[in-house]
Amino acid sequence: MEYWSGKPRAIYETDEYKILSEAEYRERVNLFYSEFCGKWKEITEERYYEMLDILPPMYWKAGGFFISEGIVLDIYSFFQEEAGHFYEACFRLKTPRTEIMKSLYAFINSRVEAGQ
Q1: Phi/psi of residue 114, each to 5°?
Q2: CB atoms < 10 A from the CB of 26, how many?
Q3: Is 38's pLDDT higher than 90?
Q4: HSE-up of 93 (CA within 13 Å, CB side)?
Q5: Co-location of 105 and 62 in the same domain
Q6: Number of domains composing the chain
Q7: Is the domain of 3 the same as that of 18?
């Protein structure tokens, strides 16, 4: 198989690098999303406003925003103020706000149940 360069695949692969098939690539990306996205943490008010001020928000609604610089692929940091507390997690840009908020409320409820 040749690539856009016209060179064969073999010259791109070494002991340290492997060219993934489309299926292997998608599998790894999905694993990355499942491991990385939606992991909430409570942050300080100072961090929330620092992230709001550092770059223009890409999305802003009801105290929540995506910072306009992505982390990797289509994953961006999301910040939310809720009832005087401030939270941060990473999500894919296409994640619906209802899903983001549902996961935040689950995080908050788990902390309440744990007595935190």
Answers
A1: -85, -5
A2: 11
A3: yes
A4: 12
A5: yes
A6: 2
A7: yes
Convert the pLDDT of each residue in 55-96 to its tens digit.
899 888 999 999 998 888 888 999 999 999 999 999 999 999
Gap between the Cα atoms of 26 and 20, Å rounded: 9
Quickly tell me which residue has 């939270």 as its tokens: 87
Distances (CA, A) of 87 to 64, 73, 92, 104: 9, 22, 16, 8
Distances (CA, A) of 2 to 12, 13, 17, 18, 74: 11, 13, 17, 15, 28
What span, in angstroms and rounded, lies between the C-alpha atoms of 79 and 52?
Answer: 8
Average pLDDT, whole number, for the chain? 88
Q: Do 45 and 9 fall within a single domain?
A: no
Which tokens is 86 given? 């401030």
Domain with 43, as residue range(s), is 38-113
Residues 30 and 62 in one domain: no
- Based on the domain organization, do 17 and 71 belong to the same domain? no
